[in-house]
Design goal:
It holds the Pfam family adh_short. Helices cover 39% and strands 13% of the residues. With 313 residues, the chain is α/β, with parallel strands linked by helices. It has one domain: Rossmann fold (3-Layer(aba) Sandwich).
């Protein structure tokens, strides 16, 4: 791998927004080494075989299962123990899921919340020092972390207008379970992590280790694999009818928002911005700005991921 290439870790690149972001990144003249972190390596290899990869870029595929903390740790360890050391210039957290029936991961946590929030919380904390180091090595470009979020983290969004409703006593879904509500909860938790992480980075006041973090809202894109476990009639509706609705967007348009946040020179030396589907700076939900909630859910996330040493006093 050429040392001149910026190293990008991209999750969920085997379908939907992630696949479109990958295709668009490959059209850039800036040389990239793309580490595609996916659950199904065979499927990703088939997709890569049908892509044209310009000579300035290189690609590798790595196993990452966000329903498993063991897999997250293994993926991070694989990156951090390479010889020679590789930088991590861009971390794009794209993969997500929604479950319509309650299910648990091998870590005995509700699947949607772990996949969309807790595993990313763990991954960021494991890789953060390397991301800081990478920014220090390449002073002309801040390292970036991109959170692919959703407008559904805001109250009153979506077809049922319910939630989000983060409750410590119902994180496992035992009290009551609504798949879309847990999806919204995971996205609000991610936004709380987003702002708290930025505060911690700002406190370091080290310009040589500057990291920019952005959260994006790609819009409603029915062609993604997000609803792959939904009922059959819902899948048909999302595949053949919803794409023609005026309020929906295409995977290509969603991919453009990801790539804008990851690469735009307009965003250099800026951070903690919420970027909407039109690539405009926007406001996230009122709850996401509440510092007490940010600290609370940071500490809860530390407990659930085994990162007790990262808890805030």
């Amino acid at each position: 791998m050429s040392q001149e290439r910026k190293v990008i870790v991209l999750t969920g690149s085997n379908s939907g927004l992630g696949c479109e972001a990958l295709k668009q990144l490959l059209r850039h003249s800036t040389p990239y080494h793309l580490i595609l972190a996916v659950r199904n390596i065979t499927e990703m290899e088939k997709i890569i075989s049908n892509l044209t990869i310009p000579s300035q870029h290189s690609i590798e595929i790595s196993k990452l299962d966000l329903t498993s903390f063991t897999s997250v740790k293994s993926f991070a360890q694989g990156l951090l123990t390479r010889d020679p050391i590789i930088p991590l210039n861009l971390l794009i957290l794209n993969a997500a899921t929604v479950k319509f029936e309650l299910s648990k991961t091998e870590d005995n946590l509700e699947t949607t919340f772990q996949t969309n929030h807790l595993s990313y919380f763990l991954l960021i904390n494991l890789l953060l020092d390397r991301i800081k180091w990478s920014s220090e090595q390449q002073e002309s470009f801040n390292s970036r972390i991109i959170f692919v979020n959703s407008s559904l983290h805001k109250p009153g969004e979506g077809h049922n207008k319910i939630g989000p409703k983060l409750e410590i006593e119902n994180l496992d879904g035992s009290k009551e379970y609504d798949g879309m509500l847990f999806y919204k909860n995971s996205k609000l938790a991610q936004m709380l992590l987003f702002y708290q992480l930025n505060k911690l980075l700002e406190e370091e006041k080290d310009e040589k280790k500057k990291i920019s973090i952005f959260a994006i809202e790609p819009g409603f894109i029915p062609q993604t694999e997000l609803g792959r476990e939904s009922p059959f009639y819902v899948k048909l509706f999302m595949k053949f009818i919803l794409p023609f609705a005026p309020f929906t967007r295409t995977p290509e348009q969603g991919g453009e928002v990801i790539v804008y946040a990851a690469t735009s020179a307009e965003l250099e030396n800026r951070s903690a911005l919420y970027i909407n589907k039109l690539c405009q700076i926007d406001k996230s939900s009122d709850d996401s700005y509440k510092e007490d909630l940010q600290k609370l859910w940071w500490n809860i996330s530390c407990e659930l991921t085994g990162l007790e040493e990262k808890k805030l006093s």
